[in-house]
Design goal:
The protein is an alpha/beta fold. About 40% of the residues lie in helices and about 20% in strands.
Amino acid sequence: MDINGCLAFTAVVESGSFAAAARELGLPRSTVSARVAALETRLGVRLLRRSTRHIALTDDGEAWYASVGGAIATLREAERRGIAGAGVLSGTIRLSTPIDFSEALLAEAIATFIAAHPHVRIDVQMSNDVVDFVSGNVDLAIRGGAPGGNEAVARRIAGFRFGRYASPSHHGTNTLAFAAHLPRAKGSAAHVQTNSFALLKQLAIRGAGVAVLPAHLCTDALASGQLIEIDAENSDAEEIGLFIVYPSRRDMSTRVRAFAQHLTATLEAHFAQ
């Protein structure tokens, strides 16, 4: 389709003259006339009757204007909104987080961001799987321990110490394991394996076994006496990093980049406390 010809033609029809259309489009009158003539040649019909003072639509011109006028108006409105909305963030951000990531902390980051950018929508998917940004249609991820493939960009936000926790009344050899590449409890094969730290914590509290858990998730249970840390002074559990992960800096949209910066700042401020 000859878009330039259609724009020139509809401008002439709506403004009433080639001179007015030229002023509206910011083009020489001769260019507007040439574009309309080229459109007529392309279509093989006469669209306008011209005189020294007036123009009028032919039957073919009326039919063509009825066909394209609405579409051209839609294009103009889209351009107008684009210019008016320059700098306004909008669209969807798809975020992947671990299943047990702090809901309160995530809600704080999201709520403050959408309050500042109400045209942005955030789709949160919770999974402990390594993110495939392409097939999973993911823009950004929060990951601990395994930040992603070689092509992903990962920024470390914080580190977590892990410890071995159990109920004060537990004296058995049962172990409870997290189903991921994280520290495992020492001893025999796990009696329970899951991808939820929350479930492991509750199992440990109920005396089901010894669980390797992030220390910060056990603070309340330690304070209340529901859990004890086993051999804390000799613990050799490794520290696991928390990362913001994204496909590449080059492919990030403005809205994703802005949210990544906001999320990073929120997490860094929280874990610096």
